[in-house]
Amino acid sequence: MGFFKKRNVNDLGEKKRDMPEGLWTKCPSCGESLFEQALAKNLRVCTSCGYHFTIGSDERIASLVDEGSFVEMDKGLDSVNALGFKGYLDKVKAYQNKTGLTEAVVTGRAMIEAQPVLLAIMDFRFLGASMGSVVGEKITRAIEAATAERKPVIVFSASGGARMHEGILSLMQMAKTSGALARHAEAKLPYISVLTHPTTGGVTASFATLGDLILAEPKCMIGFAGPRVVKETTHADLPPGFQTAEFMMQHGLVDMIVERKEMRGTLGKVLRYMGGGK
């Protein structure tokens, strides 16, 4: 006769079926499971392969500017449904509630390593950072403020392109932002464009590629139309790495590829070199 009762799996109690959500994130590039706190501390760059996750405007600003120096502009600008697109304003409202943003770009004045700048940070979480009238207006106002105050302007782009809900009004923002940048250039003031994943469509075809200096995060997608559309239109096989930052640098569109953790220091050096256009 045994002294100890044989245990079975039922004696272990109720099985914990679910791990708490939000603790781990899987890297889409290498498949590594990353501890969320460690990933956030590393500016949302994979510690295994260096993949740069998309980040929000708040995280971007915090990683770039001198502490306490950012002062937001034009926060109250809100979209209107000028074309009567069904459900558009409901969609905008849903994204406002989801992200805490008013629109797909955040603009303002800031200091980067003690250098004064005007910043525009596009946020892909808001309707794919599509460029509507408010996005174009906020970026234009930031550029015009930089010109009036004789300061450099930096735009971080991440966008799916023009906002279809606003039709031609969206496309007009390409000309408006480009015109503001032309006046900024006439004043001999620096404009730095930083391309992040993804930068496509009308944003690529306007202000994103007009910088005096164009930087890009590693392996981000840069293009006008997507690779499938390009292939179907040209009936040609696309070269390896087509529309990546590395490909664009090899072909002269991008001047420098900068890792996220190096971005603040790189911009500080560039701003000190380029100056404020005295």
UniProtKB/TrEMBL annotation:
It is found in: Cytoplasm. GO terms for biological process: fatty acid biosynthetic process; malonyl-CoA biosynthetic process. Its cofactor is Zn(2+). The keyword ATP-binding applies. A zinc finger (C4-type) spans 27-49. Its main location: cytoplasm. Keywords: ATP-binding, Cytoplasm, Fatty acid biosynthesis, Fatty acid metabolism, Ligase, Lipid biosynthesis, Lipid metabolism, Metal-binding, Nucleotide-binding, Transferase, Zinc, Zinc-finger. One of its GO terms (molecular function) is zinc ion binding. Its EC number is 2.1.3.15. The keyword Metal-binding applies. Pfam families: Carboxyl_trans (PF01039), Zn_ribbon_ACC (PF17848). It catalyses: N(6)-carboxybiotinyl-L-lysyl-[protein] + acetyl-CoA = N(6)-biotinyl-L-lysyl-[protein] + malonyl-CoA. One of its GO terms (cellular component) is acetyl-CoA carboxylase complex. Binds 1 zinc ion per subunit. Residues 23-278 form the CoA carboxyltransferase N-terminal domain. InterPro entries: AcCoA_carboxyl_beta, Acetyl_CoA_COase_Trfase_b_su, ClpP/crotonase-like_dom_sf, COA_CT_N, Znf-ACC. Pathway: Lipid metabolism; malonyl-CoA biosynthesis; malonyl-CoA from acetyl-CoA: step 1/1. Zn(2+) binds at residues 27, 30, 46, 49. HAMAP family: AcetylCoA_CT_beta. Belongs to the AccD/PCCB family. Acetyl-CoA carboxylase is a heterohexamer composed of biotin carboxyl carrier protein (AccB), biotin carboxylase (AccC) and two subunits each of ACCase subunit alpha (AccA) and ACCase subunit beta (AccD). Component of the acetyl coenzyme A carboxylase (ACC) complex. Biotin carboxylase (BC) catalyzes the carboxylation of biotin on its carrier protein (BCCP) and then the CO(2) group is transferred by the transcarboxylase to acetyl-CoA to form malonyl-CoA. This is Acetyl-coenzyme A carboxylase carboxyl transferase subunit beta.
